[in-house]
Specification:
Elements lengths: L6 H28 L11 H41 L7 H16 L3 H16 L1 H11 L2 H20 L13 H25 L1 H12 L4 H14 L4 H26 L1 H6 L1 H24 L1 H5 L9 H25 L4 H9 L3 H13 L5 H53 L1
Helix pairs in contact: 1-2, 1-3, 1-4, 2-3, 3-4, 6-7, 7-8, 7-9, 7-14, 8-10, 9-10, 9-17, 10-12, 10-16, 10-17, 12-17, 14-15, 14-17, 15-16, 15-17, 16-17
Length: 421
């Protein structure tokens, strides 16, 4: 009786074996369709993959990591023997490597079935999408786009993890991890506009990308759109539409932040935020309609590059200077009050100012009437940052169209505040 495992352990073991079997059948079914029916067909199909997955599961359960390693070596040797026989017809090693990985996933299924199942499904999808991936990389994706994609992931997977996650520099205002993240955000937003232009055309793609990217960073979106407009003047209208529509995302995101922290403050600011959002929407709609009025002018535009690392870094440096100046003012002024602190911090992030005011109200330290003004001041000073970014990225021609929209949005929010009093 002592050899019989407890019911809970037995159930876990059976689940692991079932997951391993499922992984083998799933991957094997995809490989079965590709191995063909001729005498030179591939050696591994649905049964082979299922057996190999079970070998990995049983090996780990009976002998631990050591036996699993031995099983993987045996499977690898068999895969290499099969490759030697079939390499004339299929010189690739995809099936052989997938077979070895399936064995390892079978072992993983007994320890972490959910993770093993997820990796197995991902592997099956990767194998099934072979033709589409080859077509996309070799035909749809240009060499420059491939280079930009590799550069983006190099920064995301190498530079970002290595960047220190602590505040340093003058007044302790700069966080290298946050600044690196911002560089990636600017690159991603610019790439989103590029993809939107290729997919929908600049008339619809840039405004849509601008609105969506505004939830990441409206200032970064204004910068990316300004670079587009500076590179090609015919993109001015859709780029401005995307930049202004990103401010709508700012209003929406600010509303969500306030609602999560203190819903009563959102109710008190409903008129103010609604009027600001409507003003930004109407102003952005004007440029959106202007961009689609003459589609022939924009449809012939080259999409250019997905992003420019130098301009992304330049924007981050500019925002870093603004953040440092804001921290310096805070240190100089000291605890002069919530309003001064909100105005200064708003230069860097309007959402943080809103969350801070809502938190103080939720803690009972300030009343609702005292919480509204800091939020509006933060939104106002943040618009100043956006105006500076617009001049830096797109020049006077671009900024002269962005700044009136920012002024209109901020004025509408203050008007809503006075109307609701």
């Amino acid at each position: 009786m002592g050899l019989i495992p407890p019911p809970a352990e037995l159930q876990s073991t059976l689940i692991g074996i079932c997951v391993a079997m499922g992984i083998g059948l799933l991957i094997g079914a995809e490989r079965e369709r590709r191995k063909g029916d001729s005498s030179s067909r591939g050696a591994a199909g649905i049964r082979t993959f299922a057996v190999v997955a079970l070998m990995g599961a049983v090996g780990l359960m009976l002998g631990g990591i050591e036996l699993l390693a031995l099983v993987v070596l045996v499977v690898s040797a068999g895969a290499m023997i099969a490759y030697q026989k079939s390499r004339a017809q299929d010189p690739g090693l995809t099936t052989e490597f997938a077979l070895v990985l399936t064995c390892m996933l079978g072992g993983m299924a007994t320890r972490n079935g959910l993770l093993a199942a997820g990796v197995g499904v991902g592997l099956a999808l990767l194998l099934a999408a072979r033709s589409r991936i080859h077509h996309f990389v070799s035909t749809v994706l240009s060499e420059q786009e491939l280079h930009d994609t590799l550069l983006f992931f190099a920064i995301a997977l190498i530079a970002l993890p290595l960047a220190p996650d602590r505040f340093m520099g003058p007044f302790g205002a700069l966080n290298p991890r946050a600044l690196t993240t911002l560089i990636l955000a600017v690159m991603a937003i610019s790439a989103a506009g590029y993809v939107g232009m290729r997919w929908l055309g600049p008339n619809h793609g840039l405004p849509l990308a601008g609105f969506a990217s505004g939830f990441v960073s409206s200032a970064a979106t204004i910068h990316a759109m300004g670079r587009r407009a500076r590179q090609d003047a015919s993109l001015m209208a859709p780029a401005v539409a995307g930049a202004v529509l990103s401010s709508i995302a700012t209003i929406i995101q600010m509303s969500l932040v306030i609602a999560l922290v203190q819903p009563a403050l959102l109710l008190a600011m409903a008129w103010s935020l609604a009027m600001g959002g409507v003003a930004a929407s109407l102003y952005g709609l004007v440029f959106f309609l202007r961009s689609i009025r003459d589609p022939q002018q924009c449809d012939a535009v080259e999409a250019g590059r997905a992003f420019d690392v130098k301009t992304s870094v330049g924007f981050t440096v500019l925002l870093g200077v603004v953040m440092t100046a804001s921290a310096g003012l805070n240190a100089w002024l000291g605890d002069a009050g919530i309003l001064i602190g909100a105005a200064v911090s708003g230069f860097a992030d309007a959402h943080a100012t809103a969350a801070s005011a809502a938190s103080l109200m939720a803690a009972g330290k300030i009343q609702v009437s005292q919480a509204i003004l800091p939020v509006l001041l933060g939104l106002t000073t943040n618009a100043v940052t956006k105006a500076i970014v617009a001049f830096q990225a797109g020049g006077i021609a671009y900024a002269s169209k962005i700044v009136p929209g920012l002024v209109l949005m901020v004025s509408a929010t203050w008007l809503g505040f006075w109307v609701a009093r």
